[in-house]
Batch of 4 targets.
Target 1
Amino acid sequence: MAKPDHGGDMRLRFIHVKVFCAVVLLIWQWSCAHTESARFYVLNSLPGVHSENTMKENPAKVVLGIGPIKLPEYLDRPQIMSRSGGNELEYTEFHQWAEPLKDNFARVLGENLSVLIPTNRIYFFPWKRSAGIDFQLEVDVIRFEGSLEGDSFFTVRWTLYGKDRSQPLLLEKSTFRQTPAGKDYEAMVSALNQTLEQFSRVVAKAIHSFISPQT
Amino acid sequence: MTLKEIEEFISEESPLRVDLTNSLEELSAAARSMRILADYLERHPEALIHGKAGPRR
């Protein structure tokens, strides 16, 4: 008597499992079709490529080392952050950085400076000792953010070292502000991009002021 | 191993060192991805079934 009962119990349980699986699969299939595709953004470097002429006129044999670059922890995410209130941040799942912001930031800064100084010899931290760095730029980002309603801000503390690492040539804190052209993420990222360009120009000018007396 | 061999082994140009640096970078990238995934699932566990919710704007 006990045997057939047990078999029926098992069969019933199997049916339950099958129905459960089918329902789960149905929900899954139905819902997955609803996830929107994310859009990805990058910062761009300055369009100018250093022409042969500017390189010949100003053969600045500057070797520039960039880094270490520090970014606030809350910016180290693929989701683009915007400030929605005084102390409130908002991350958007559907507008993301195409690569870690820190790498993107460093590369664009390097490219901009290589155009503005101009020099081809840019190294990123950590570089080899044989690189023979003339200037080192240390960057500590305090704020690099925008909001959909207002301006984009970039506040940065930066230190410029010469060959002598023990004594900084410059220790500055700069803030840049840019009003975006629109109210979407594209415009916000583009405004951030422009603040980074402004910063690159300030740094290039500072480096020029240190190299011009010698040449 | 002589001292010179060891020096070559750990010098800045040695393949071992380059490989090691690359692997460490890969590892930290993987850890970062895991952190982001865990972070997202912690906030939206229902995403496993529903998919990501649409944008609010």
Target 2
Amino acid sequence: MFNETYEFQPWDDNGLLLDEKIMSETQVLIGTNNGAKLLDLSLTIDDIAYTDINEFVNNLFAR
Amino acid sequence: MPKKISQLTALAGSLANTDLLEIAEDAGGGNFDSRKITVAQLKSAIVSNPRTIDLVTGTNVTGTTALTSSASILIPANTITVASVLEIQSRAIRVSGTASTIAFSIYINTANNLTGATLLGSFISLTATNFFSQGLRSLFINPSTNQLTVINNGATVADDYVNTGANTVLTYDETTAYYIHFVLQLSNSGDTGLIQFGKATLYE
């Protein structure tokens, strides 16, 4: 799944265009050009692990 | 002395995949060669349309407020070879607890987990007093374009019987195996939810 390249792209969540939606303390939906992807804290960003989902999201969009 | 079929001992149990049958293979020119085939070969030669890919029951979801896959269905690689409709239907029930809402959705992933899964759609949530929610999505999958089309995946609706609205187009590589995940999310971790059934039926 992550051997693909995706671009951030909002999705229509019941009429609201969202870039991301925090789903739980460990999960976030991220809008891409291939649908909304459910990411979680088992993933790393540039080999850095996170324990806070908000920090994870902020660093994801900062890349 | 050859026996008539009616003189043979009847099969006592069910047919096994390894049981053998005799056939006459067309050799052309009005000739036939005797061959053996297994019951498994016979089954694979019988193609029904539509056909059930799988019917599953889930496991209880409790003790967490994270999105959790209660059940999943494997769509093996190369299952879809022509433009087809994959109909996904599922029912969520509240097993116990009436503290809060249970959200109900479906995802698709190349792995049998939710990490990196793509949202296919959200069904109607079970409010604290609801014990039952059922939903349906019809996925149009076209192998020639590697595309899966579904009603707007951000819409929270029970089914896709509409004549207006947006759709969502996702990449679907038919040479890859996919899992359809039936997902519950408890608003209160003390409640217990369950995917009573999830099924995938292929029309081609």
Target 3
Amino acid sequence: MRYAFTLTTLVLAVVIAQLALVPAFLPPVLRPDLGILVGITVLAFGPREFGLIAIFCLGVQADLFGSAHFGVLTLAYLAAAGVILLVAWRELVRGDVLAPWIGGLAGTVLAHVFYVLFANFFGVHYVWGQVAASLSSLAIAAAVWGLPIAYLTGRWLAWTNCLSPAVRERWANEARINAARRGKLKRA
Amino acid sequence: MTRDGERSRIVFPALAFLALLLLAVPESSVDSARARVLSLLNPVLSRFAAWKAPAPRVASIQNLEATSPDKPVEMPAPNTSAETDYNRARIVQLENELEKLRRTEPFANLPGKIPPGVDANVIIRKILWQEPILGLDRGEADGLRMNAGVLHRGAVLGRIVGIGPHGASLALLTHRGMSIAARLSDCRVEGVLQGAKAEENGERFCHMAIVAREAAPKVGENVVTSGYDGAFPSGLWMGVVTAVRKTGDFQWELTIRPACNDNAVEIVHVLTGSMPEVPWPAAPGVKRGAR
């Protein structure tokens, strides 16, 4: 139940942010694809199947509001997540925010490259120069916003108790160590 | 980890299969789903959209209206579907204006400046005695006069044949009663261009009879005004020769296709300049100062 709640809130937040906040407040070069960033973060911090389902749902929302052919972006998201899991699963799930940040950046690029390739099959042809420009701006935006999004999504997953056991254990350890350090400092 | 890995080995292909199934969803269903989701989210989205600097947006629309005072449109309340409709209607209106202006630009192949005159809108089209007559929204009060020449995109369109204080009517080059002094642009032979009856395919042409000892009119040659009739200055494009028929030793009958297609005429340029007065010599046999 809590997974469904977390997923619904994440998808809603991404839809609202992508449709209302990002175009209103950010210049074109800093408009990220929030879906893949949040999805990769969930994949990094949450249980793996929950992350995959989140990526699927976020792909569907992205398809609904920003794809030339319905289903292509979902497939591209899943393919990007699959490649990242295949190549760097251990690095991704180690529990710090740097991994989902870099993962989000790589996922953004991969997902959109896959999207362009898959879209070709359905008669949607893009000009490669424009693709390169869009990819660059998405990568820049992912680099800029990836870290705060990974942090906020991680906090939300922790608050709703949807972290994977390994990540939860690591964060709990870090919290204990931090608390111990603060205690030592206080005693000193 | 192993159980997790086992499960994700099933979950991932299942999701990929589902994603493949999504590709088969018809566009109409996607559109309706998109519309449903957007209408569900509309209260939230419109609230966020209201943050999007509302003042400049309203101001920009007001500025837009200020540039075209002849078309006042009432502003709807912001962030409603009425606003979307208003913007859509405004875009169509502006595109129409743009296309109209584009169609009034002089033909690209015309050299020189257009003679002075007044632009007038075609407000009515009538068929009188089987001849099309166009009504204009300018009249004597605007400087128009009877028999003034009328241009469209820099080429000759016709002549003013009726005039009132705030309106005028215009007969086209193809009108049977029309005659304008013309000249072939290459062989420089002069003649009078006259309107003619409709041809078999409905297209209207003009005729031009020329009389010359040595002339070689060719099909495709341009016809321009000679400037001898006082309505038009010389050198304005009238049309193109489409057929040449020799009717006598020194006579030719030419068929001319007019430069302007009158069906596309929305704005015309009515010439207001007049010929300078020529001081002709007195008739022979009359003594200077005699009555």
Target 4
Amino acid sequence: MEFLLFLVRRGLWSILVLVGLSMVIFVIARVVPGDPARMALGPTATKEQVADLQHKLGLDRPIVEQYGLFVAALSHGDLGRSLLSERQVTADIRDSFAATFELVVATILLAMTVGVPLGIVAARWKDKWPDTVVRLIAIFSAVTPTFFLALLLQILAGYVLHVLPTTGRLEHGTSFVPDITGLAVVDSLLRGQLSVTLDALRHLLLPAIALAAATMGQMARITRASMLEVAHQDYIEASRAFGIPDWVRVLKYTLRPSFVPPLTIMGLEFASMIGNAFVVELIFSWPGMAAYGIRTILQKDLNAVMGVVMVSGVFFVLVNLLIDVLVGFVDPRVRIRGAR
Amino acid sequence: MAVLSHQNQEARSANRRDRDQESAASSADRRDQDQAAPRRVSTAYQSWYRFSRNPTAVIGAAIVIFCVLIAIAAPWITPYPEHVGAVVNFKARHLPPTLAHWFGTDDVGRDIFSRVIFGYRISLLLVVVVLGSAIPVGALLGMMAGYFGGWTEIVIMRVTDIALAIPPLVMALAVAAVLSPSLVNSMLAVAVLWWTWHARLVYSITRQIRTQEFIEAAETLGAGKAHILLREILPNCISAIAVKASLDAGFVILVGASLSFLGLGVRPPTPDLGTMVATGSSFLPDKWWESVLPGCAILFVALGFNLLGDGLRDLFDVQDVR
Amino acid sequence: MMIGRHLLSSAALAGLIAGGTALASAPAAAETLVTMNTVQIFSSIDPAKISDYTDYMAAVNLYDGLVGVGYDGGIKPELASSWDVSADAKEVTYHLRPDAHFSDGSPVTAKDVVYTFERLLKINQGPANLFADVLKPGSISAVDDQTVKFTLSKTYAPFLTTVPAVFILNSKVVEANAGSDDGQTYLATHTAGAGGYLLKSWDRGAQMTITRDAKYYRGWGDHPIDSVHWIITNDEATVKSLAASGELTMTSQYQSPETYDALKAMDRFKIVKQDTAVAFYLKLNNQKAPTDDVHIRRALACATDYDTIRGTILPGGDLYGPLPKVFSDFYASDLTAPKFDLACTKAEIAKSKYAAQSPVPITLQYVAGTKFEEDIALLMQSNLEQAGFKVTLQPDPWNRVTELATKLETSPAVSEVFFGPTYPSPDSMFFTQYDQKAAGTWASLEWVADPAIDDLINQARATADKAKQVDIYKQLQHKLVDRQSDVFLETQTVQHAMDKCLSDYKAIPMQSFDYDFKLYSWTCK
């Protein structure tokens, strides 16, 4: 019960945060120089055409009034129309967000399924060679610039070895459209088109590896550190004294409480992952929201910029909320303490 | 999690302090017995001793110091220092690494090795600019939020949350658009968001120790707020801040390189590692040295800071710094 | 690598690659697919809103206009089979082909033409600026089902050359889907025209696919291209990977020289080079210090290493004045080649009013992320600093270049800009760049503001007599060269790496009309 209250309080604060975020970005987007009307019309537009479009977009009204209109529209779920694509921003974002979401989910899965076991291995054989190898991998994956890794992977796997595709989400001539969940892997499975699933996975692999590397390293290190910390606890010693077998001790008693730090880290890593996603999406021509965001910022497609920032803000807040829940689930002590 | 480990950390630090005092006391006792005048081993020496026994910390420190030194000495140790200025040599374009040009030449014929060393200057400058502005601001705000509580705490922490929800790249691009695209401008934009991490860190530490006895004692004795913040609370945060700063330095370099890669780099012809990777990437894989070697240089210095931060973390036994 | 929009907005000569094996009756015939990369996304396919190079590349395949443009810049019939011009050049009447029909089968009538132009003027975007002051709403009328009359508000000689920029819409379809914005939402994702290709799929940030309409009214040759697939690429590495994996048939014209070399080394590709009407200038700000002094401008012209630029950095053709040689009828052939001579630079600085300020500070702007522009900037900096200038390089993203160009105070002293004709007439080169009425865009960074020049431009527009036009344009060229309004670097030679089976690419001096895949053929089996 107290935990529920805690979550509700966190939820309300999150909404406040998002409101604040919307105001900040709104002002920034409009204060930044560059005239969206001119950019949309192209270089040969006349002054009258530009003024005409500015009026149509409501850019000549005071900024407070513009914000009011924005919020009013937002309450209907209307993010306005994109200047460049002419479609509803919600439609543009839905398409590009699904692609980014798929990439991020794959990245997180990869980072956790590779990072955590590596951390366990390192903790189990502390100070022996597996530990050193894991620590080296972790260090190097954390310090390699993501864009550098992405370039190297693309050149090696795509250009030199020809084993994996280097751009896009699916084969270029394909007519498959992920319209159920937006995730190519999931939708193709639901439709039973396994060849498309395989294709989607092959396209997903390189970008996910590039993006996951840094986080995977962190996961490994944190898992290792927290497992070692837990391993010092008295109840672990006691379990060994009681003759409980090694693997049970490691997996059942040590792992669960060790899980909290990696989870918390995930929330923090997530922020930098979104940042790195920009570069990865650019290099692999992944049709995601990050690339969309850069384009719309540079073109001053104001509605689209607001949409992108708000969506990523909401996403970020939700993920952190989710992590709080998971942490509470895994570690009962936090549930109680957090509710106080 | 932070809450949990803090308690552990406190307990462990308390144990360690006890143990240190014991060992200091016992060694002092022994010396007392040997000599007439008692001598204490200073904590500074103890720290140095522990530090030097930690291989990661030593390697990290060595790398960082090496990079700082060659960056400072750049004009005197590089073979072609003029190549960071307005020099082009179209007859010597795209040369592979040779004895004359250790890292080869780029597409206007400039020596890449010299430019990489000068590039370190920009990277390290960025670290100074960003952390130099982010840490004091963040630490101060975090301390104030943690100590004063009430509305101060609420306002500061919510602003922090908002800042954390802004994608840093969006911020950098927006600021770059306002102030014209240059690396320092973009990094200032990132610094504007960076202080939040330090604020959070210092905030959680402050909250921990706020209720401790020595704070109460200082308050009872009539110590002013400023004194309490700066002389009582801050020293307890220093170690955590130092660890985080060291780890951050690596990230600042990587973020800076990413921004340059996207085109928000320094004004040419000044060399900058991220920009060199970006421009060199058009020539992969044939003229790999133009992109790969500057990339490795970034990796090298980021590695140094990372190892150093790791070492410091082990040293100060700070668990909740990432 | 991001290429500025200015490159893509100017007319580019590009060949179309036609490829494809005959589909028709052969049941198991292979479909011909051409995959081409492009470095910029398609922002619109609505004929009333397309404005740049990349947009036209798609639109010219999806739609047809009243007329088209031939390899020599001449106007050729498309939906209209013939046209008449009145004696005072104020009325133009087009006669539509009786067999012209849209992709849904309905015939193309004069009503559709009227609707298309009226809608364009109403929305007032895209190619509408070509008709500002020339066509007023209501001045286009349908004489009968097959005849359309345009009544111009004044004599405007280049009118015939601007008509190809407008693609004709199926008025019934658009009106049925007009919604509240004249069909802008509908046409943002659908086509409603008489083009040779139909839109199959379009993922804005990543790709577009179009397929051949077998029922196209003008019919097809023996080896048409059945599908065209455009992929957006952001860097050279991607292009090379696509080429290596066999996916790519043709590159864009904006790849780096190293990429072309790499593709040439792969046996599958040939490199096709064509001279274009796109000129590459160092635009000099004629009204701002220090380039407001003609001696400084001449100093800069002397400090330019034309041979290295044309030979090594970006291969291109000769350019001695504002008008490229391709406009052979109007070209002033008595113009001479500029020379690279640093002694001349020093002498000119001494004659200028900034001589005392040596080294003279000057800013050189170029589009950030464009390798060869940076190389040229570095080369200029290196030479200029030897001769008495202090150069600050200013790489700006394209949107900033556009923004800075709107005001005189923020326009840089020197800027690297490509400009090509947006319609196949020399008026496009002179008016858009040098006329005061066109000031404030990236194309007019010279801020020339000379009433004598404006006067000449207007005279050329107001006369239908070709001999007079030739005389006036030659005068204009000499005037601009004398005042050294720009440093004239070179004309662009476009390069494409394309599959050896793809042929019939030839440059057309109008936007990206040379990417009309109806003109290409696929010669392999």
